[in-house]
Specification:
about 15% strand, about 170 residues, 8 helices, alpha/beta, TPM domain-containing protein, Diaminopimelate Epimerase, Chain A, domain 1, TPM_dom
């Protein structure tokens, strides 16, 4: 039987939409969307940015990790459904201040796992300092650099996935 983490459960129960609006106000969400558009102009990859305030109680009591939830969201949003299998999800679980990057098989097999983890750490460090917009934009830029290396722009960059951040 899994041991419940009551401190984590309390954080999730106390992290609501007001926390989200404080961390990511409308201007920050717009900056994130702009960063994705700018990044995608330099490569053929697709970036989705998702923010979830907290996990629901069933997921919490089951001990769902941010990584497991990110993989679930990756599938739900169809980030895997791009022509070149080069979609990348940046998932932020605000209650845990955890960032997870899930990359489709096209880009993932060309990028060491540690690369994604390093980008996550940079973002998480910024979030701990309450620099949410800056951390998000730097993360998008770093992911974009890797996509540019392996999937450079070819003049036909079609936007297969929306650039607007998703709030769950």
């Amino acid at each position: 039987m899994k041991k419940l983490n009551f401190q984590r459960i309390a954080k999730h129960l106390l992290t609501g939409t007001s926390s989200l609006r404080k961390a990511f106000p409308p201007l920050s969400l717009h900056a994130i969307e702009s960063a994705i558009k700018e990044s995608e102009a330099a490569h053929q990859g697709q970036i989705r940015f998702v923010i979830e305030c907290a996990l629901d109680s069933a997921a919490l009591f089951a001990g769902q990790t941010a990584r497991a939830r990110a993989i679930e969201v990756f599938a739900q949003l169809g980030v895997w459904d791009t022509e070149h299998n080069n979609g990348v999800l940046i998932y932020v679980l605000l209650a845990d201040r955890d960032v997870e990057i899930v990359a489709d098989r096209g880009i993932d097999r060309q990028t060491p796992t540690d690369t994604w983890r390093q980008i996550c750490h940079v973002m998480e460090a910024a979030f701990k300092q309450a620099h949410y917009e800056d951390g998000a934009v730097k993360g998008i830029q770093a992911v974009g650099q890797h996509l540019s290396t392996h999937y450079p722009a070819n003049g036909e960059n079609k936007n297969e996935l929306p650039d607007k951040p998703v709030i769950l």
